[in-house]
């Protein structure tokens, strides 16, 4: 999933000369301590920052996202099968990324905010809570 996310956003391997790097913050779930994940991070120069156990406040953005998707997607439907759940969640993720306004991104959808940032160097300080 991380590789797909980097590809979709056209993020290239960081340039060591200009000091840029990619940082991913996660909890200590099994997928994040696996050998394949560690090797991927090393190969693509992704710095993996783990939050201490029992400190969800240090990962507030993803915790907020989980709350939003629970409220706006999971609780809205009764899923009869995996395919239906997959369809509804995929549909919601498209809405979330392309049409839902986010207060922390100056009331822009994430895709629009990211595009402005890439095209015009949209200053991060314009994002209220970043």
Automatic annotation (TrEMBL):
Pfam families found in the cross-reference section: rve_3
GO-annotated molecular function: nucleic acid binding
Any Gene Ontology biological process: DNA integration
Annotated InterPro entries: Integrase_cat-core (IPR001584), RNaseH-like_sf (IPR012337), RNaseH_sf (IPR036397), Transposase_IS3/IS150/IS904 (IPR050900)
Integrase catalytic domain segment(s): 1-117
PROSITE patterns: INTEGRASE (PS50994)
Annotated TM spans: none
Protein's UniProt name: Integrase catalytic domain-containing protein
